[in-house]
């Protein structure tokens, strides 16, 4: 277990109050920054610099701009067949709250284990839908808008190895970041693994050939050995995996501003949210 501890610094973003429970707008104005002034991002950067300058030895402050992928074909299928409502360690707002009650269990019990239904294909590793691409474009437009007010470009970018996340990252930052700034694909930033075919990633060779402008960490091997067709990853296992990502970032990165493209909100064992979806 990591010896590091992580806390959220409050007072900057409006998502803080509801982020621990999956609440809040998907794409709030100013990415949720509370300060509405024209000089908001300059002030924000100065405050983060000040926090790091005055922090005691061993303490670091980093800003994570965290995004979820746009709609994929698996999301359409889950809406079509419904998801069983189960107790969770945190409250999550459903994408599709109006599913017919008798069909709630069909996705988890059967269809999530298939690659498609003859109409839709969602496994393995589905693509973005047209709506999903439009959602990524909306994020791109939001970055473009906030650039007018001096939002700092992330100094380091990380991404899940799943296709829907990589495409979302690519669309979101098209013409926003310099071409020389490459996103690093990290195996442990992926969706919950196991059973659901939509969460089985493609090969390293496929990723290299399809997304040549992305870097891939050396730990990501050719085949997806993390995905088990019989066993679904637990919340405790997800938490441990996300801690390893944070430990890696805080252990080796000197940059203060980072962009992470992944799949959902993850919670620390203390109950504090460290990846707030924006």
Task: Give a structural overview.
The protein has helices at 16-19, 40-54, 73-81, 106-109, 130-147, 163-172, 204-210, 235-252; strands spanning 63-68, 156-159, 184-185, 215-216, 257-262. The chain has 278 residues and is α/β, with parallel strands linked by helices. The protein has eight helices and five strands. Helix content is 31%, strand content 7%. Helix 5 (130-147) packs parallel to helix 6.
- Mean pLDDT, to the nearest integer, reads 86
Proportion of beta-strand residues: 5-15%
Largest sheet report = 5 strands, parallel
How many distinct beta strands?
A: 5
SSE arrangement, N to C:
HHEHHHEHEHEHE
Shape, per Cα inertia axes:
globular
Q: Which structural class is indicated by helix and strand composition?
A: alpha/beta
Query: Which percent bin holds the helix content?
Result: 25-40%
Write the layout of secondary structure elements.
Blueprint: H1 16-19, H2 40-54, E1 63-68, H3 73-81, H4 106-109, H5 130-147, E2 156-159, H6 163-172, E3 184-185, H7 204-210, E4 215-216, H8 235-252, E5 257-262
Helix pairs in contact: 5-6
């Amino acid at each position: 277990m990591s010896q590091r501890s992580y806390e959220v610094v409050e007072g900057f973003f409006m998502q803080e109050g509801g982020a621990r429970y999956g609440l809040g707008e998907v794409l709030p104005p100013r990415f949720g920054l509370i300060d509405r002034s024209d000089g908001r991002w300059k002030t924000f950067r100065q405050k983060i610099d000040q926090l790091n300058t005055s922090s005691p030895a061993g303490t670091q402050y980093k800003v994570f701009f965290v995004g979820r992928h746009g709609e994929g074909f698996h999301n359409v299928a889950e809406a079509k067949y419904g998801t069983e409502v189960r107790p969770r360690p945190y409250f999550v707002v459903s994408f599709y709250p109006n599913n017919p009650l008798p069909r709630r269990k069909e996705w988890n019990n059967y269809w999530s284990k298939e690659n498609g239904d003859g109409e839709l294909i969602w496994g393995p590793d589905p693509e973005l839908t047209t709506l999903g691409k439009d959602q990524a474009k909306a994020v791109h437009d939001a970055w473009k808008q906030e650039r007018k007010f001096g939002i700092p470009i992330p100094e380091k970018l990380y991404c899940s190895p799943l296709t829907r996340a990589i495409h979302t990252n690519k669309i979101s930052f098209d013409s926003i970041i310099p071409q020389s700034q490459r996103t690093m694909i990290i195996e442990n930033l992926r969706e919950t693994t196991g059973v659901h075919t939509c969460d089985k990633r493609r090969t390293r060779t496929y990723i290299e050939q399809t997304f040549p402008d992305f870097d891939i960490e050396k730990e990501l091997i050719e085949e997806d050995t993390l995905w088990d067709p019989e066993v679904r990853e637990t919340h405790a296992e997800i938490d441990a995996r996300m801690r390893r990502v944070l430990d890696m970032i805080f252990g080796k990165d000197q940059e203060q501003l980072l962009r992470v493209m992944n799949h959902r909100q993850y919670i620390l064992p203390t109950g504090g949210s460290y990846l707030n979806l924006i």
